[in-house]
Design brief:
Elements lengths: L2 H10 L3 H12 L3 H18 L8 E2 L1 H10 L6 H11 L7 E2 H8 L4 H5 L4 E2 L2 H87 L6 H16 L3 H76 L1 E2 L1 H16 L21
Helix pairs in contact: 2-3, 2-11, 3-11, 5-6, 8-9, 8-10, 8-11, 10-11
Length: about 350
């Protein structure tokens, strides 16, 4: 293996981002025209690779998926032949640099010899800050998205709990009203029964009153006889039946109360969970605001380093593109870039 091939193989072992930046640095002024294409190629490599951004090459199956996405579909034989043409370590895999070499019809030596410039300390510091902010924004966005999903689920659960509570509460109220009717009916029967007993007692008192006249006693005696001839059984049976009905309704009402209490507890639990998630979302939104400020700091550091940097344009392109992508994930009112148009890299003058 030649020295150039050995160096190319080592470069291909680096992560996709480093491979892309190496290639973009070598394009010099062509970065403005080709930068977005190389970015898209790198992002697709990352998307296809199970290792994501930590990967450095695709296996044969993953390579097929990558090529199909960019309408560069080949037969298995054609792809193997293409891989053999550019595969420097003969491992049957395709690194990003290998693909870019093949796609741009360059030689391995051309890629190895690409000038990289001299990155300044300021640029390195800006890159470090940008990496930290970019990672933090991605984490906040992922958490925020997850919390929003949980919040929607929680709101749905709250609605279900509130509906269930309203249903059992209505049933309890209906049962209470029925119980009140039954109590009134029992009270009416008791009053009727008491009135009968009071009448008997009054007539017996009149009959046995030594001060009463013979006529009065005779009249009271006749009325007492008639009253005692009345059959109290239907009244007693009606009262017994009504009391049994009342006990049944009371038991049903107690069951409804228990169901209402359980539903109310579930509703309170759902409401509390919803409020906790709302508070969590607000905290994440505040973190997002704080990160927006840090992203602004990273942008300022980048612009300052950009003026002093002797580094390759690929590094500058990549940093600014990362800021563009990080900015895209922020709410529209907080964005610093115009995302209605494609990203446009402006090299330092």
């Amino acid at each position: 293996m030649s020295k150039g091939n050995a160096e190319f193989t080592e470069l291909s072992k680096s992560q996709y981002k480093a491979q892309a930046i190496w290639f973009l640095n070598g394009l010099k002024d062509d970065v403005t025209k080709e930068g977005n294409k190389v970015w898209d190629f790198a992002q697709r490599f990352i998307a296809v690779d199970d290792k994501g951004a930590d990967g450095n090459e695709l296996d044969e199956h993953e390579s097929h998926k990558f090529l199909e996405f960019f309408n560069k579909t080949m037969t298995a034989m054609e792809m193997r032949e293409a891989l053999r043409t550019i595969d420097q370590d003969a491992n049957g895999h395709m690194s990003l640099l290998e693909f870019l070499t093949y796609n741009y019809k360059m030689s391995v030596q051309d890629v190895v010899d690409m000038p990289q410039g001299d990155n300044s300390a300021e640029l390195d510091a800006a890159q470090k800050l940008l990496d930290e902010v970019g990672t933090a924004i991605a984490e906040v966005q992922a958490k925020k998205e997850a919390q929003h999903k949980k919040l929607e689920e929680s709101k749905a659960a709250t609605a279900v709990a509130e509906a269930a509570y309203a249903k059992v509460k209505a049933a309890e109220d209906e049962m209470r009203a029925l119980e009140d009717e039954q109590k009134a009916a029992v009270a009416a029967l008791e009053a009727e029964q008491q009135a009968y007993h009071d009448k008997i007692a009054k007539l017996e008192s009149a009959v046995n009153d030594p001060r009463a006249s013979v006529v009065s006693k005779s009249k009271a005696s006749n009325e007492l006889s008639q009253a005692k001839q009345e059959d109290p059984l239907p009244l007693r049976k009606a009262k017994i039946t009504q009391e049994a009905s009342l006990r049944k309704v009371a038991k049903q009402r107690a069951a409804c109360e228990a169901a209402t209490a359980e539903a109310e507890a579930k509703k309170a639990e759902a409401v509390a969970a919803e409020k906790a998630l709302e508070a969590s979302v607000k905290e994440l939104e505040q973190s997002e605001t704080d990160l927006q400020a840090k992203l602004g700091e990273a942008q300022a550091a980048y612009e300052e380093a950009k003026k002093k940097s002797g580094g390759g344009l690929g590094v500058l392109y990549w940093m600014e593109r990362e800021m563009f992508e990080a900015d895209k994930s922020l709410p529209a009112r907080k964005q610093r870039y115009d995302h209605k148009a494609d990203f446009q890299f402006k090299p330092p003058q």
